[in-house]
Amino acid sequence: MLHLLRLWIKPSRHSGTILPSQLEDVALIEYARLTGRPYSVFSLDTGSLNPETYRFFDEVERHYGIRIEFMFPDSVEVQGLVRNKGLFSFYEDGHQECCRVRKVDPVFQGLDGGAGSLVKWNPVANVERNHVWSFLRAMTFRLTHCTRYVSIGCEPCTRAVLPGQHEREGRWWWEDAKAKECGLHKGNIKKDAKAMEASYTELADKLARSGVKVVKFRADGDQKEFAKQELQLGSFPTILVFPKNSSRPIKYPSEKRDVDSLTSFFNLVR
Length: 270
Hints:
The longest helix is centred in the middle third of the chain and has 16 residues, at 96-111. This protein has helices at residues 2-8, 26-35, 51-64, 75-85, 90-93, 96-111, 129-137, 197-209, 224-230, 259-269, and strands spanning 16-18, 39-44, 69-71, 240-241, 250-251. The strands form two sheets. It has a three-stranded parallel β-sheet. The chain has a two-stranded antiparallel sheet with strand order 4-5. The chain is globular. The protein has two domains: 2-188, HUPs (Rossmann fold, 3-Layer(aba) Sandwich); 197-269, no CATH class. With 270 residues, the chain is mainly α. It contains ten helices and five strands; from the N terminus they run αβαβαβααααααββα.
């Protein structure tokens, strides 16, 4: 990790810009401080962050004696979105529009320095999370952090995850698993990345071998209204079990997505 950090923030007359949105980003600030490298800190206030996030920003500023340069969404755009669709429209038609107004546009506006001025570099992209946290735990600065909130975004769109769940499962949980991105990094992720696909695929294979009919139904696109009215689906992905002696499906209620938990539920209701 230290080798990558050195490559990222080489000694020069130019400073690197650190965009802290998660606790792990403090590792970059700490390394820059320890090595005397020039840096600036930039962040975004969407207007919908957790109270803990604002306290986190304050702790960082106080500890490092810096001022974070905040960007804010365009008030006219936010006002128009809320007046036309309400405060929580993203629960109905997806998070992309709200994220564009509150996050994507303000970030790129704040970082815009002309053509070729922005180079996105994540020095810890290939570093295991436990190594980053070992570095953080060795710091004298003790930051508060929400337990089980591994990936943190706006308050209405973030919830805690359970042990074994993918870190992105707590973000926009009502949407299809492959949509777990706000739009800032679309060019850097695989088009068909799916946060929870592995457990579902493994379960489907296991059930199929036992003689159970398994069907995959894409319900978050053109079929969303049908799924909502006929199957009472409000979030995706969702598992429904159709018992032999019932005319209505039973929805898998738990956030535990591991194969053992899913299998136990199926054996209980089949």
